[in-house]
Every structure is written in structure tokens, then in C-alpha cells.
């Protein structure tokens, strides 16, 4: 499935020279816009509509169904509603930081998708440090959270910002260590290499996805990812019943949309990372052109899992969260890394 | 029978005899402190001097075993002010005593009882706020229900209702002013939790001082939902106009339990005998209400611990919906039932009776399965256990000291349930158990409620059997009650029932007219909420929120 | 861990069984019990202007105006202030005022809820349920006098 990255494909499509730098810059921008739009569409579907429907299913309710087929047009209605609300700027907020935070939260998560191979030739760039890059962009969101928390001049926001930092620091390390254990298998940080390494079959019909090769790492990664995207049982940076809405308490209107959007894109980015390094990326039965379909099924699967956990798992307390992170997850992920290294070393 | 409670060792308590209390022995114990003795319908009242309150009450508490100060009622007469301390015992609440403290009209001063019974703290603040009696040696005598800026005391006789109470914003306390309350101690942070906060179950304001995320100091601020319920009842006639209002104290489906509190007090006051058939219906409908109320408590507690809109909240609501449909069939309303009447109930069971029985039985049959599901979802969940076990601990001594009752007290191992200990209705004829848990933590309180639902189901089942077999010509739902009730002047009574949240008591004093002269509500939530600082000192904010949820307060009842 | 998985299994079971307990309200009219207490309906033919309902009303929702010959002129009831306790129906000797099952009423301002005679007469039955038939009121005991002296308050 080693297709050319998206800008080259686009350049060939419109008949321009893929070797000229201006053309490539232009085509990269077009590709980025394409991928950005794709993810935004997903988020629009997930935020106002799918989330309601999924929550309703878990709680025996019907949820939106009055506007459009299956209530789908609620997306438009919600967009209009949210954008037409007054943007309230509280007294004493730290202006540039407060305004920038929603942008940082939303855009950093989008940046990650640049290196994610989505199949069907949609792959913007394929740098050799792809995996490291994804983790780096994903964790930049916590900068946005801290900015939002500190700049809001609200004690609940402040507590939420502090909680977000504590949580992200505690869970990023296990996340990256577990990701590194996959890198030991492939020997490369390049996303396309990681996907390619999962193409063989393991036993019978089972593909050699790393979720099957090392299920323990997969489970660890799933849990750490829940904390990374701030969903139950680790949704304490927001924790509505404790600190109102955490870092996003003071945001309204467009800013709120950006924060909310950022969260959802973040969940999808987490899903994309899981799909790529554990679930074979866009791999699936059928022709390779269906890759994008499989890829989206996988990231929606991860999204569904976060919603499922939200319906049934209580939130842990902040001190318990830190304890689980440093004393449990970190140790387990280190053990996993060492064990993988030893096993791979012995076999190789 | 399972209803029997282990007999406490009362040998050391003065005044306890085989057949109840010997008031003469109690009077001897107090000796010269007793100035006069009065006869109330529920107990005798000892009149004492206003400057000897602490001495008398601590003697009664330590030597006569009156460890429960149920309520403090204050009122103004033409010639004096009066505070009544309604004392009873956690071991045997039928042993009651009223301590009456008169104070002069021109300068009403009493000694405070807050040093003897912690629960008197808030009760006396309320008396000060509404009636205007000053309590000396009170730890913190401020207004509690009305705003700090209020002029006058609305239940005192000289209160001018037409006087405007508008106060400019500048004169009001500014919550932001207290922002840096402890400037010398820069390690703490002052946070207003509420009155608008997702976890306060209404409009409660909790002033908290945080040390990191741990609670260094905490003070509940109530009164946002004060609707003058007591005054409204004082303006209604006994026979008709008071009954619709109890539904609105604890407005989350505990209506019939509240109505029963008024019905019991007024019936005992006017000496009305309720037909047995009506008592069975009352018992059944009250327990249905209890299930509905506990379901709601469970659902909202899950909301506090699990996060926004968990499945459990919705499941609890779904099950409560079934109960409410049954109650709607029976009473005609889903929350504001107005079903009980003095001397009976408003309606017999709806026709066709078989359908009603079947509907109720179906609900009872489904209930164990549903409770099993809740146990899977809540109590069996390790993270839930991690969150709730050993957090918000309330020791039995503190529970008694603060006058906590109901599931809160029973979750701390205080074996106190008025349905058994001070029987009314048809409870003493039925086979059921009082549920207690020893833990005293958030988990125990939730567990008590879940198990009480099972017990309530048992009671309802037995009532249904009884009602089904009741001979058709003996289905008397209403005693013959005069159209206008005028109890004898100066009859006083304090009677309580086991509401959904605990001991819901009513004090009524009649003055010979068809309306009460003083109507005082002893709200269980009011007393239970006092334990919150005790529970959450040093705990994390999330645990405080969980404790608040496990107290299951309804602000409508706290503020009245 | 087992407990958590069990919780998750329980919610998943609910998600998959497809059952819902909410209803699509305006499309599906809810079942209302025959005893349900909704907006009042008043009948001028039956009313004898005894003012018992006005007297018993706990929060002065009913206002009756009569001329000096005790002929009824106005009968006003504020359905937004009413607490739906049904005491007016209970004391009415002629069933002139009834609480229908009708729970649907809206208005732009509170004032529009102050219903007069004509509006009260025209309140529709809900699903054509006549509450009198379904409630079989047991009036005997309730209206009956006690042992004491008769009091026509």
C-alpha cells in the first residue's frame, strides 16, 4: 500500500510538474485543506449528532430525530445556534492568551492528521519521524488547555487547567512508551512503514495487527488514550459536577465551538493513532481503494469506545488518577517496553 | 419478629420505667430548674429559666439519655417569647420531652443549646432569623434563611409586612469580596461552590476554602429557596388548605410521606381515628413514594460520581417513572399528590382494582432484576468503590450530635427508623426490616437506600395482599371529620414520620381557630445538611460533591 | 476490573436492545390517568354560586363576583397560579367545576392564564375523557358532617 503522498497525486491529477517546489507547496495546501475538511466533517457529524444518538442509545432514549432524516440536520441548526450566540468576554481575562487558547486546542489536533496514512492515497506527508510528530502535536493541546485555564480568571478554569496538565503529563509518558514498543517491532517511526509492517497474516485469517500481536500494549494504549483525550473515567479536567466545566467554563459562542471541536478532533486523532499503530491503518478486506472507509470505521470504533466508557465508568478522583498514572500505567508500560525489546531481540 | 429492635440498656437512664417515661422522676432529676410543667399531646413540657438551658439540657442528655434534639421551635406569644427544645431518644423515640424556655418580650434572650446539641446551632439560627430570639453563647448567631440585610423578624408579632425590603446591591455582601479571605495564608483559595453549580441539587451555596484540591474549611449557605412554607400553613385551614402544601416541601416525589407528617400531627391533635383500610392505603402509597424518592437519590448520586448524563441516571428515572404512573393512577397527580386527608385518603384504589394490583405487582416483580442491574452498574464497579468507600465518613456519634436521621443516620449505623420505633400507619403489622450499614461513608449511604427500596417493596407487596382481600363493605377510606376543625386552644403537639430523608416532624400549636397559631416543620434535610462540614473536612472537592449527593438533600425542604 | 466490565456490559445491553422509554410527545399523545388533574372546566348551568370553591382554594386562585342579588357575574380562575389540588372540585356540591385531563396550555404572558367564565366553559376534554364518569367520586364521606355541630362555612 505504498502509495505516493497526497500532494504528488494531486499534482499528477491536474497535470502539473510534481518536481517543482511552488507546485508542491500549492498542492500541499490543497491536500491539507482536503484532510482538514474531512476531519471537520467527521467532527460535525460526531459532535452535535452522533454523540447525542450514541448517548441516547445507552440511556434508552430516542434523541434528535425531528429535523431531517434521523435528525441529521440538527448539525446545521446547532452550528447556527452556537455561532449566533453572544461572545461573552469576562472581566479580567488575560486577553491574547484567552483568545488564542481555543485556536491552539483546535488546530494542534488537526496538525497531527498530516502524517496519518488514511488509505486510498490520502496521506499528506510521510516523514521518517512520523510517529514522534503525531505524539508531539497531540500533546501540544495541553498547552492550549493550560492557556485556557490560566487566562480565564476563573477558579474553576484554573483548577481545570491544573488538572489537565497533571493528567497529561502523567499519561503521556505511558502512551509514548507503549507506542515505542510498537516501534521496536517495526524498527521505524515512519507511519507508512508501521502500516506496511502489519500487512502479513498472523495466524489463520488474523492479520498481524499489533493489537493482536501485543494485546497487552493495545489495552494499555487504549486506557492511556482515554486519559489523553480526557474522557471517562479520566474526564477530570472538565468534571462538570465538580469544577463546572473546568478550563472551558468561561468560553461561549465561537470560542466554545473551537474548544469543543478541538476535543472531538483530539478524540479522532487518538483514534487515528490507535488505528495506525495497532489496527493496521487503512487495511481491511476488499480493494485498497476502500482503505479510507476502513480507516474511518476504525477511528469511529475508538470514538464509540470512549462514549461507551462514558456511559458506565465513574470518574476517578484527581489523586487516584495521578496514582494510577505514575504507579500503575508507567510501570506497566515500562515493563511492556522492556519485555517487547527482549523478545524482539531474542527472535531477531 | 424482625421489627423488634434490640432493647437498649436503659437502666442507667433516669425516668425510664416499664411503661414509658416517668416525668416525675425527670422533674426530680432537674430539681429546682423546673419552674412549671405543661402538658403537650406528645409529651410533657418542662418550663425552665432562660439562663439555665445548657445546664438542664446537658443533665437531660447525660443522665436521662435524651440524645436527640429533634427540633427547636420558637414562637412569640402576647406576653413572652418561647423556645421549645423537642428532645427524644435515638434508642426509643417514643420517650419524648419538651423543654420550654420562655424569655421576656422586651429583650428576648436565651442561653444557647448549641454547645450541648450541635444540631441546635442551625435550629437556633433559624429561630433568631424568623422569630427574633437572641441566643447567648451561640457559636455563630447570624441569619440563616433570610438575607443578611433583612430588616426585622417576619414571625414576630410586630413585624410590618408592608415594609419594603429592598436593599441596594452595595449593601449586600459581595461574594467576590471574600476572594482573598485569608491573605496571611496564601496557600488556600476561597471558592464559591454554588448557588449555580451542577452538583448542588438546587440552589445551595457552599463556601469552601481549598488547600490545593482539599477542603480546608466549608460552610453551607442556605435560604435561596425559602418560600415561607410555615407561614403559608399558618394561613390555611386544618381541614382543607394545608394538605396541598406538604407536597411542595420535599418536592421530588416524596409527597405522600410529607402529607403523612401533617396528617399524623393534625389527627393526633384533633383526636381523629383513621380507618384501618385507609391506613393500609396510606402505607402502600407512602412506600411507593419512598421508592420513587430513593430512585431519584440514586440517580443523582450517580450523576455526581460518574459524570454528566450517565446511563444510571436515566435508568433510575425510567424506574421512577413506573412508580409515578402507579401513583398517578392512584392520586391523580405525578408529584403534587394531595392524596391524604385528615382522617383518611381522598380516593379509594382506582377501578378496576385488579388492573391496579396487577400494575403494581408487575413493578414489584421487575424490581429485583432492576436492582441487580444497579448493583452491577454502581456498587459492583471497582472505580465506584474506590471513589465512595471511606470517603465522607460520618461517625455514629457525630450523626446523633447533629440530629441526622433517615438513610444518613442509618448509613452510619444509627438504628433509628420511626416507622418501627414510633409506629404509625400499618407498619407495625407488617413484616419488614430496618436497614443499617456500619460504614458511615458515602458507599454505605447509597447501599442503605438501595436496600431500603427492597424493604419498601416488601411492605407494598404485603399491603397489596391486604387490600386485595379486604371485604368490600369494610372499605372505609375516610373517618367522619367535622367540616371545620377547631382544636382546643393552646394544644401543642410535635409528631414526626419517617420521610424519605429522615425524621420529618411537625409542631402545631392551636389557638382555638380553624388555622394553626404556630406551624413548625422539622425538616430532615435541614439537619442532615449540617453534617456536611463534618464529613468533608480534609477531603477532596470530588468527595465533597459525592458526600453532598449522598446526603440527598432537597433544597425545597431545607429552606422551606 | 470485572466490575467495570460488568457495568459496561450492562449499558451495552441497553444500547443494543433498542428499547426506549421516552416517547415522541407531540406525535404520540401520552396516556393520562382518569384521575389526572388538569385544567378546570366550569359549567354555568350547574353552578349555584355557593362560593365554596372560592372559599376552600388554598391560594386564592378562584375569584367570584356577584351582584347584590347574589347573581353570579364573574367566575375567574388563574390556571397559571392554580396548584391543581382539586379541592374546588371536591367541595363543589353540583359538579360545576371539574378538573379535566387537559394538561396542555401555553400562553405568551401570565395574564393570559387568568381564565374567565367563557374560557373556562370552553376548555376541551382531553381525549374526550369525562372525569366525572371515570373518577367515581366518593363524596359521601368527604362532604358528610362530623359529630359536632353543623357548620356551613
From TrEMBL, chain A:
It is a multi-pass membrane protein. GO terms for molecular function: NADH dehydrogenase activity. The keyword Transmembrane applies. One of its GO terms (biological process) is aerobic respiration. The chain crosses the membrane at residues 23-46, 104-124, 131-151, 171-189, 209-227, 254-279, 291-309, 329-347. Keywords: Membrane, Transmembrane, Transmembrane helix. It is found in: Membrane. The keyword Chloroplast does not apply. Signal peptide: none annotated. GO terms for cellular component: membrane. Its main location: membrane. This is NADH dehydrogenase. It comes from Haloarcula pellucida.
UniProtKB/TrEMBL annotation, chain B:
It is a peripheral membrane protein. GO terms for molecular function: NAD binding; NADH dehydrogenase (ubiquinone) activity; oxidoreductase activity, acting on NAD(P)H; quinone binding. Keywords: Cell membrane, Membrane, Multifunctional enzyme, NAD, Transport. The keyword Ribonucleoprotein does not apply. It holds the Pfam family Complex1_30kDa. PROSITE patterns: COMPLEX1_30K. Residues 47-163 form the NADH:ubiquinone oxidoreductase 30kDa subunit domain. The keyword Chloroplast does not apply. In the C-terminal section; belongs to the complex I 49 kDa subunit family. NDH-1 is composed of 13 different subunits. Subunits NuoB, CD, E, F, and G constitute the peripheral sector of the complex. This is NADH dehydrogenase subunit D. It comes from Haloarcula pellucida.
From TrEMBL, chain C:
InterPro entries: 4Fe4S_Fe-S-bd, 4Fe4S_Fe_S_CS, NADH_quinone_OxRdtase_chainI. One of its GO terms (biological process) is aerobic respiration. One of its GO terms (cellular component) is membrane. GO terms for molecular function: 4 iron, 4 sulfur cluster binding; metal ion binding; NADH dehydrogenase activity. Residues 131-153 are annotated as: Disordered. It comes from the Archaea. The keyword Repeat applies. This is (4Fe-4S)-binding protein. The lineage of its organism: Archaea, Methanobacteriati, Methanobacteriota, Stenosarchaea group, Halobacteria.
Amino acid at each position: 500500500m505504498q502509495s505516493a503522498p497526497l500532494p504528488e497525486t494531486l499534482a499528477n491529477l491536474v497535470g502539473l510538474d510534481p518536481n517543482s517546489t511552488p507546485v508542491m507547496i500549492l498542492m500541499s495546501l490543497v491536500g491539507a485543506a482536503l484532510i482538514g475538511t474531512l476531519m471537520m466533517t467527521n467532527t460535525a457529524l460526531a459532535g452535535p449528532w452522533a454523540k447525542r444518538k450514541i448517548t441516547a442509545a445507552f440511556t434508552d432514549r430516542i434523541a434528535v430525530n425531528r429535523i431531517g432524516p434521523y435528525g441529521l440536520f440538527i448539525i446545521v441548526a446547532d452550528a447556527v445556534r452556537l455561532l449566533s450566540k453572544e461572545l461573552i468576554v469576562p472581566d479580567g481575562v488575560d486577553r491574547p492568551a484567552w483568545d488564542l487558547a481555543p485556536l491552539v486546542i483546535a488546530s494542534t489536533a488537526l496538525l497531527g492528521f498530516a502524517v496519518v496514512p488514511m488509505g486510498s492515497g490520502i496521506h499528506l506527508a510521510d516523514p521518517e519521524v512520523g510517529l514522534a510528530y503525531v505524539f508531539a502535536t497531540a500533546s501540544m493541546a495541553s498547552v492550549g488547555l493550560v492557556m485556557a485555564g490560566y487566562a480565564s480568571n476563573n477558579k474553576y478554569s484554573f483548577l481545570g487547567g491544573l488538572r489537565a496538565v497533571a493528567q497529561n503529563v502523567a499519561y503521556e509518558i505511558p502512551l509514548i512508551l507503549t507506542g515505542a514498543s510498537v516501534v521496536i517491532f517495526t524498527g521505524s517511526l515512519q507511519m507508512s512503514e508501521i502500516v506496511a509492517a502489519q500487512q502479513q497474516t498472523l495466524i489463520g485469517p488474523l492479520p498481524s495487527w499489533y493489537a493482536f500481536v501485543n494485546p497487552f500494549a493495545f489495552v494499555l494504549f487504549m486506557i492511556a488514550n482515554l486519559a489523553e483525550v480526557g474522557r471517562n473515567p479520566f474526564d477530570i479536567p472538565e468534571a462538570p459536577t465538580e469544577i463546572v466545566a473546568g478550563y472551558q467554563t468561561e468560553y461561549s459562542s465561537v470560542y466554545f465551538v473551537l474548544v469543543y471541536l478541538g476535543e472531538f478532533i483530539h478524540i479522532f486523532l487518538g483514534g487515528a493513532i490507535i488505528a495506525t499503530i495497532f489496527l493496521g491503518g487503512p487495511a481491511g478486506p476488499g480493494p485498497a481503494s476502500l482503505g479510507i472507509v476502513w480507516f474511518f470505521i476504525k477511528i469511529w470504533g475508538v470514538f464509540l469506545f470512549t462514549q461507551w466508557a462514558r456511559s458506565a465508568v465513574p470518574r476517578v478522583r484527581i489523586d487516584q488518577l495521578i496514582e494510577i498514572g505514575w504507579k500503575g500505567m508507567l510501570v506497566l508500560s515500562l515493563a511492556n517496553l522492556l519485555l517487547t525489546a527482549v523478545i524482539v531481540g531474542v527472535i531477531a | 419478629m424482625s421489627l423488634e429492635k434490640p432493647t437498649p440498656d436503659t437502666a442507667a437512664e433516669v425516668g425510664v420505667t416499664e411503661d414509658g417515661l416517668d416525668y416525675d422522676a425527670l422533674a426530680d432529676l432537674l430539681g429546682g430548674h423546673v419552674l412549671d410543667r405543661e402538658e403537650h399531646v406528645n409529651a410533657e413540657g418542662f418550663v425552665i429559666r432562660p439562663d439555665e438551658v445548657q445546664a438542664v439540657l446537658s443533665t437531660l442528655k447525660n443522665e436521662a439519655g435524651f440524645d436527640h434534639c429533634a427540633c427547636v421551635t420558637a414562637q412569640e406569644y402576647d406576653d413572652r417569647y418561647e423556645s421549645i427544645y423537642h428532645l427524644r431518644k435515638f434508642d426509643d423515640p417514643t420517650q419524648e420531652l419538651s423543654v420550654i424556655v420562655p424569655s421576656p418580650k422586651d429583650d428576648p434572650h436565651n442561653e444557647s443549646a448549641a454547645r450541648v446539641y450541635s444540631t441546635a446551632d442551625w435550629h437556633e439560627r433559624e429561630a433568631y432569623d424568623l422569630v427574633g430570639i437572641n441566643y447567648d453563647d451561640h457559636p455563630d448567631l447570624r441569619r440563616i434563611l433570610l438575607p443578611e440585610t433583612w430588616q426585622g423578624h417576619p414571625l414576630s408579632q410586630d413585624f410590618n409586612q408592608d415594609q419594603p425590603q429592598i436593599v441596594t446591591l452595595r449593601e449586600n455582601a459581595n461574594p467576590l469580596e471574600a476572594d482573598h479571605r485569608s491573605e496571611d495564608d496564601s496557600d488556600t483559595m476561597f471558592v464559591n461552590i454554588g448557588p449555580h453549580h451542577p452538583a448542588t441539587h438546587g440552589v445551595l451555596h457552599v463556601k469552601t476554602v481549598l488547600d490545593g484540591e482539599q477542603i480546608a474549611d466549608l460552610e453551607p449557605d442556605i435560604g435561596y429557596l425559602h418560600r415561607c412554607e410555615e407561614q403559608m400553613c399558618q394561613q390555611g385551614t386544618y381541614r382543607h388548605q394545608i394538605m396541598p402544601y406538604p407536597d411542595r416541601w420535599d418536592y421530588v416525589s416524596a409527597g405522600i410521606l410529607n402529607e403523612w407528617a401533617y396528617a399524623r400531627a393534625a389527627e393526633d391533635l384533633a383526636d381523629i381515628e383513621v380507618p384501618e383500610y385507609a391506613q393500609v392505603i396510606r402505607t402502600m402509597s407512602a412506600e411507593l413514594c419512598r421508592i420513587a424518592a430513593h430512585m431519584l437519590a440514586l440517580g443523582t448520586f450517580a450523576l455526581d460520581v460518574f459524570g454528566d448524563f450517565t446511563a444510571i441516571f436515566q435508568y433510575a428515572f425510567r424506574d421512577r417513572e413506573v412508580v409515578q404512573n402507579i401513583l398517578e393512577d392512584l392520586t391523580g397527580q405525578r408529584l403534587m399528590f394531595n392524596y391524604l386527608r385528615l382522617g383518611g385518603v381522598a380516593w379509594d384504589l382506582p377501578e378496576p382494582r385488579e388492573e391496579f394490583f396487577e400494575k403494581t405487582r408487575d413493578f414489584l416483580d421487575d424490581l429485583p432484576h432492576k436492582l441487580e442491574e444497579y448493583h452491577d452498574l454502581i456498587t459492583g464497579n471497582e472505580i465506584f468503590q474506590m471513589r465512595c468507600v471511606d470517603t465522607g465518613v460520618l461517625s455514629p456519634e457525630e450523626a446523633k450530635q447533629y440530629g441526622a436521621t433517615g438513610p444518613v443516620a442509618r448509613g452510619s449505623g444509627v438504628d433509628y427508623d420511626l416507622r418501627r420505633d414510633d409506629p404509625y400507619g400499618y407498619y407495625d403489622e407488617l413484616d419488614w426490616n430496618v436497614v443499617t450499614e456500619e460504614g458511615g461513608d458515602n458507599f454505605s449511604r447509597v447501599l442503605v437506600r438501595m436496600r431500603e427500596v427492597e424493604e419498601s417493596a416488601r411492605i407494598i407487596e404485603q399491603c397489596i395482599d391486604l387490600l386485595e382481600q379486604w371485604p368490600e363493605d369494610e372499605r372505609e377510606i375516610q373517618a367522619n371529620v367535622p367540616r371545620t376543625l377547631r382544636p382546643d386552644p393552646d394544644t401543642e403537639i410535635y409528631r414526626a414520620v419517617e420521610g424519605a430523608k429522615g425524621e420529618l416532624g411537625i409542631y402545631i400549636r392551636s389557638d382555638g381557630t380553624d388555622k394553626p397559631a404556630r406551624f413548625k416543620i422539622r425538616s430532615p434535610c435541614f439537619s442532615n445538611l449540617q453534617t456536611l462540614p463534618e464529613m468533608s473536612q480534609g477531603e477532596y472537592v470530588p468527595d465533597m460533591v459525592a458526600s453532598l449527593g449522598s446526603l440527598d438533600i432537597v433544597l425545597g425542604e431545607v429552606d422551606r | 476490573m470485572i466490575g467495570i466490565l460488568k457495568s459496561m456490559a450492562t449499558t451495552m445491553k441497553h444500547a443494543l436492545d433498542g428499547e426506549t422509554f421516552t416517547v415522541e410527545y407531540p406525535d404520540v399523545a401520552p396516556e393520562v390517568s382518569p384521575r389526572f388533574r388538569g385544567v378546570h372546566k366550569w359549567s354555568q348551568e350547574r353552578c349555584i354560586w355557593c362560593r365554596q370553591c372560592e372559599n376552600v382554594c388554598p391560594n386564592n386562585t378562584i375569584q367570584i363576583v356577584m351582584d347584590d342579588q347574589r347573581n353570579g357575574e364573574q367566575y375567574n380562575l388563574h390556571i397559571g397560579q392554580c396548584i391543581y389540588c382539586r379541592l374546588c372540585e371536591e367541595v363543589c356540591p353540583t359538579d360545576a367545576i371539574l378538573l379535566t385531563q387537559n394538561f396542555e396550555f401555553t400562553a405568551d404572558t401570565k395574564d393570559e392564564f387568568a381564565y374567565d367564565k367563557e374560557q373556562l366553559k370552553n376548555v376541551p376534554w382531553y381525549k374526550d375523557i369525562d372525569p366525572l364518569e371515570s373518577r367515581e367520586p366518593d363524596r359521601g364521606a368527604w362532604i358528610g358532617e362530623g359529630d359536632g355541630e353543623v357548620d356551613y362555612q
